[in-house]
Amino acid sequence: MKHGSLIVLAAGVLATPALADEQVNRTIDASPNGYVEIYNTSGSIEVTGWKQDKVEVTGTLGDSVEELIFERDGDEVLIRVEVPNRHWGDIDADLAIKVPERSTIEVSAVSADIEVKDVLGEQSLESVSGDIETTGVVKEVEAASVSGDVEIKGKDADGDFEVSTVSGDIFVMGVSGSIDAESVSGDIDVAGGRFEDVHFETVNGDQNFAAALIDGGDLSAESVNGTVDIELTEPVSARIDIETFNGSIRNCFGPKPERTSKYSPGLELRFEVGGGDSRIEIETLNGSVNICDKD
């Protein structure tokens, strides 16, 4: 009798339907150029700018999500996924959010990808374990991921851009102004645009810059293990200082590198192009350096 009861009980448990995800479809009025803060622990976040003065949230919440906070205070809108402290069960939340296109946004995630489209205000994007992608950028962006790639595509944006990863690649195109990009284990690629201030730093990763450095600008690149490849897309007037400990130096401007010491493999190259208005400094430990103009 005991065995029979256990079998019946087990069958009943197996037959119990799984809890369904909760569907979300909510809207709130918002300032046309206000501030929207979004926080999600796990799942995905997609933010799209639109021409309506409303914030709309659609998507699904896992059965263990406690609640979705969605509220407005003046010009600020808060969207926050609340989960249990011990994070048990299905806490994924997949959110599709529409905001007024001129909004400033701050998006934070723990284990979730972040995708942003056509948001014209400033952006602060952060994920611990997830990729970050933003397109249609026209203003400043701060983007950081511990374990994930970061991709920024602008519409000839001119501003300040700060990008960092611990384990992930960085790709930036269609922006100008200043950029600070750092990666512990990943490549950095910047394509297009005109810059006055550039700072790259990697531990294990290549650095590629194919853009213009304006007169009076500064470009610095540091790498422990990786190649630094600089292609200047416009004529440059600069003082150039390059040093490698274990790597070659190639440039298209004429001067040849020299040994730093007869007892070590290090090379250095210092020369001036044009009037020397800008400053380019490149240093690598294990990696070669290539610097050329577009022609």
Throw out a few tags for this protein:
single chain; 295 residues; mainly beta; 5-stranded parallel β-barrel; 1 helix; 5% helix; elongated
Write up what this structure looks like:
The structure is a single chain. By secondary structure, this protein is mostly beta strands. Strand 4 (about 65-75) and strand 5 (about 75-80) form a beta hairpin. It is elongated. Helix content is about 5%, strand content about 65%. The chain folds into 2 domains: about 20-130, no CATH class; about 150-295, no CATH class. It has a 5-stranded parallel barrel with strand order 7-8-10-11-9. The longest helix is centred in the N-terminal third of the chain and has 14 residues, at about 1-15.
Average pLDDT for all residues: 91
The profile of the biggest β sheet is: 5 strands, parallel, barrel
Describe the strand arrangement of the main beta sheet, using strand numbers.
Answer: 7-8-10-11-9
- Structure annotation, total helices: 1
Number of domains: 2
User: How would you sum up the global shape?
Assistant: elongated
Quaternary structure: single chain
Radius of gyration: 25 Å
Percent helix range:
under 10%
SSE sequence, one letter per element: HEEEEEEEEEEEEEEEEEEEEE
The secondary-structure class comes to mainly beta
Proportion in β-strands: over 45%
Poorly predicted residue ranges:
1-18
Distance between the termini: 88 Å
